[in-house]
Amino acid sequence: MTKLTRYLATTALAATLAAPALPGFAMDVTIAQTSAVNTLDPHGSASVGLDLSVLSHIYPTLILREPSYDLVPSLATSWEAVDDLTWKFTLVEGASFANGEPLDSETVAWNIARVTDKENPKRISSWFSQIEGVNVISPTEFEIKTSSPYPALPAQLSMFMLLPPKWAAEHDPVTETMSGYKYQISEIVAGDHITLEPNPDFWGTPAQFDHVTFRVIPETASRVAALMAGEVDLINKIPASEIARIEASPNAEAGAVDSTRSVFIKFNTEKAPLDNKLFRQALNYAVDKELIADALFDGAATVSNCQVMTPDYFGYNPDLEAYPYDPDKARALLEDSGVDLSQTIEFELPSSTYLQGEEVTQAVAQMFGDVGVKTEIQAMEFGAYLDKYRKAHDLGRFSLLGQAWATIDADGLLTLFKPGNQYSYWNDAGFDEQLVAGIATTDEAEREAAYKKATEIMCDEAPVVFLYAQPATYGVSGRVSYQPRGDDWLRAFDMTPAN
After folding, report:
1. Which CATH number belongs to the domain containing residue 193 in this structure?
2. Residue limits of the Solute-binding protein family domain (predicted)?
3. Is the backbone peptide bond immediately before 273 cis, with ω within 30 degrees of 0?
4. By residue range, what is the domain housing residue 129?
5. What is the pLDDT of residues 26-51, one digit of tens each?
6. DSSP letters of 128-163?
């Protein structure tokens, strides 16, 4: 994406000067991010932990996902499924952007048309491919029509931010903003930080901080040092081994919660010998997942029970059990598989991508080796890995991969393994049949039954080595109270002043 090199003032000066005095705010707060923001267009990014986290302070969504993962009203006060193909929404009355443009049904319809325009697709257009159109009933009521049942639409809309149509026609949303939510941008220093200040025209509960600064600190050690020195108030993605050290500090505390991201060893079943089910099952028995969770993550990681979903997902199957660590059974299955173990299998590692991913890859490779499976670790930049994974469709036979789906719904995450999906590298007709059944209705019981069967098939067929839910580690200063969350969002409105 385009790197930001400039910031153009976007608020209407006269409106700002005429705005009523803001209530007293408690303090400034600083959030550390690992990378610089790539775009200010909320339709041009799917990066929750980076671009969208910053932009969620500036642009409104119809629905908000809380740290508990509950979906709560934001611009939309209510929503309901009228039938399998129709969702109806009611909006807050009188809401507007800082330039006075209304936040009404017509604005929602324009934004949906923008991301569903096949002639000019956006980064997030695939999220809404099932939407056929919007029926505007009144300024505060509208319906979204879909081509097929879309039970996860409200969850997906919690990530969909709204731009002002008239403003967007005259400005570049990639490099400029016009606030319709709690904060507006006051300063950008490219590659270093973005600072926000309260939007005096916000239609909802006022912002709680005088300024929110997103500061770029790529190195883990530097983020930890900045937190302990009182320079930042929130950091994430820290090694589990750092939690105790931060906890010992008088200025900060740290912890971990299960994230919605599962980490596993991805198999390219389109290449031998990963097309051999017994070989895949053997590798699941070969890995001591409990040891990895305890030794590498100090017990902060939860072992996956034979599925890629975590318990927070709709469609999670609580009845499945993890493959136990059984190297003898692994060796027996390897022998039964007939696979030639003299070969060395490439093991691709996207560098500096997943929490302690290098350590995990080395541990798994060692365990594979202990049962006679030779590997060669091939580290590469994440961009190069994605090129192989998505563009070239030439993923290595083994690779470390972590995946999540922002709707926290099986119809998103499991689709990454659906036959024909570019991300799948696995083709199972029975699994596909259950996914089709799961998205054919909005009836929750029918959907759960379909996903239960799908996860059972996936567990048995083992297209991955199921490892663990990546812990969402964090450190927070004593100046604020923070509600930890495991879905990558970094938001000032998940924090409150401690005193």
Report:
1. 3.40.190.10
2. 71-418
3. yes
4. 13-216+478-497
5. 589 999 998 899 999 999 998 898 99
6. GTTEEEEEEEETTEEEEEESS--TTHHHHHTT-BPP
